[in-house]
Amino acid sequence: MTQPVPMTEIWRGPMAESVHQGHALICDATGGIVEAWGDPSTTILPRSSSKMIQALPLITSGAADAHGLTTEQLALTCASHNGAAIHTTRVNRWLADLGLGDDDFRCGPQHPDDPAAGKALICSDTAPCQVHNNCSGKHAGFLTLNRHLKGSAEYIDPEHPVQKAVLEAFETVTGETSPFYGIDGCSAPNHATSLHGMARAMAWFAGATEGADASQSAAVRLWQAMIAHPDLVAGEGRACTELMRACKEPVALKTGAEAFFIAILPTRKMGIALKITDGGTRGAECAIAALLVRLGVLDADHPATRKFMNAPILNRRGVEVGMIKPAAALV
């Protein structure tokens, strides 16, 4: 099958009013396909779902250990955070330790998604800073690697040593030559691959063994940091954070813009990658929850699961009028 398939349905009354279609793939540690929906060969931009790959050179280069990075900082390198105080205070402290400031970022300012942080800025008539950008943890990692490599200030340039190291890591773990890149919302290059390549990479993370080699040890440190600090990877109310907490075994989850999602399942040595073709986040969140339920690592009736899968749709009076649920193929 080469076309996207129905993955998430929006029901109102007795009918499916809208349908989100997409592609999904589960791989084992060898890169073999366990289950597939849609087209495994479809070319995708993984967006922020690739952050743990982009963080590999930070560790393999020796930069992380040279700067004494903690598991919290490693989790932040993989994060698309809400800009809450728990995120920004840690990233600002990291910058200070490097002797750098907000102007050294190249990710751009962003109004925080965290309600308290956003309200504080509005009430104080203060503009958001770059540290509020959901990718500021990743960029703090880039700045740390850049310090180690003694590169120029423009660390987001595709020809910069930082980004060359990221591309090398990306092509190694996906097992493919990236055909092109797009510029992400945070201004860094985001490299394309196939859906199979991305699922293969996540399965490689899941099957990595600490001490086997530098890359595998780095992979283990990164997914362990994500699982140890789900609140830093995204934030309260977010699917990544809530579903990681709800899983019955260790699972690292990461969303990406335009409805991409990955999962790393180290106990099973499996990786998941999925893409909803219309870019609808609700479709990707429901689909990833459904696949985790399908694999038995998440309970369908867990309160966190019910926020994203089989989630009630309420009207403006609080009356339940519909449901967001997975298509039959995922159940």
Provide an overview of this structure:
- With 331 residues, the chain is of the alpha+beta class.
- Helices cover 37% and strands 20% of the residues.
- The protein is built from 13 helices and 12 strands.
- The strands form 3 sheets. Strands 1, 2, 3, 8, 9, 10, 11 and 12 form an 8-stranded antiparallel sheet that branches.
- Strand 11 (311-314) and strand 12 form a beta hairpin.
- Helix 4 (71-77) packs across helix 10 (214-228).
- It starts with a strand and ends in a 5-residue tail after the last strand.
- The model has no long low-confidence stretch (mean pLDDT 97).
Q: How does the helix and strand content classify structurally?
A: alpha+beta
Radius of gyration, taken over Cα atoms and rounded to an integer in Å:
19 Å
**Beta-strand segment tally:** 12
**What overall form do the CA principal axes indicate?**
globular
Order of helices and strands: EEEEHHHHHHHHEEEHHHHEEEHEE
How much is the average pLDDT? Answer: 97
* Tally of contiguous helical segments: 13
Helix content: 25-40%
Q: Which regions are unreliable across 5 or more consecutive residues at pLDDT < 50? A: none
First and last CA, distance: 19 Å
Proportion of residues in β-strands: 15-25%
- Please identify the oligomeric state: single chain
Instruction: Report on the biggest sheet.
Output: 8 strands, antiparallel
